[in-house]
Write a structure and sequence with these properties.
17% strand, globular, six-stranded parallel β-sheet, 38% helix, alpha/beta, 224 residues
């Protein structure tokens, strides 16, 4: 489990830009890339920190569904074909660890599937994303799902804090969404990387809150 270190000065400085003590009436939960490749023991990018957040994501997802919020799961996806392919320079497939990671994230691979411990409801939305940032994905699935849900706020969980979570949070802010990142329901390889990402997000792009706080917000009366 990550040891979270969010300095008080960062919380205060960020308050002027992103301070959201209540959920918006139309909020969406985005659970990023909780796939076997990142969560399962032996997965290409897996870590114990990712496994530690499974329960909190499931509890938060249930609370958000009960509130009537859209619950969206993304799957990091790699393809070499068509408009969704990554730039050819981006991954050096001559390196075995890179080749294994790319293979694990191809549709149909075991690593690509959401981890079986994730409690995905039939009414949830599952989308494939082909870039670190879900808004940069040329498929446009996330933007379309949020538009259909008429969301004005997004709550972000998942992996990795300093890659796909941080990138998507920044993009969401720039797209005009209020953003909350769940500090104890996001994860990456080290505490240093986790805290660095949360610090930057809090200063400029998002509110950063714990799951207990978010659960209380989800159960609070809604105001249209």
């Amino acid at each position: 489990m990550h040891i979270i270190d969010m300095p008080g000065w960062a919380v205060e400085r960020g308050r002027g830009l992103n301070d959201f003590p209540a959920l918006a009436a139309r909020t969406a939960l985005i659970n990023i890339d909780m796939q076997n490749a990142f969560v399962a023991r032996g997965g290409a990018f897996a870590s114990a920190n990712a496994r530690d957040i499974v329960g909190r994501i499931n509890v938060l997802s249930a609370a958000m569904r009960a509130r009537g919020a859209a619950v969206i799961w993304t799957r990091a996806t790699h393809t070499a074909e068509g408009p969704f392919a990554s730039p050819p320079w981006q991954y050096d497939l001559s390196r075995p660890e890179i080749a294994a990671g790319v293979a694990a994230l191809q549709a149909g691979a075991q690593g690509h599937a959401l981890h079986p411990a994730m409690e995905v409801d039939p009414g949830d939305i599952v989308i494939d994303k082909y870039r670190y940032g879900a808004f940069s994905c040329p498929a446009g699935h996330l933007a379309k799902a949020l538009a259909a849900a008429r969301a004005e706020m997004v709550v972000i969980t998942g992996v990795a804090t300093n890659c796909c979570c941080e990138t998507t949070a920044r993009e969401a802010n720039m797209a005009g969404y209020k953003v909350i990142v769940a500090a104890d329901a996001t994860a990456t390889l080290t505490d240093q990387e986790h805290n660095a990402a949360l610090l930057n997000l809090r200063l400029n792009f998002a509110d950063v809150r714990g799951v207990d706080d978010l659960l209380a917000m989800a159960m609070a009366p809604q105001n249209e």
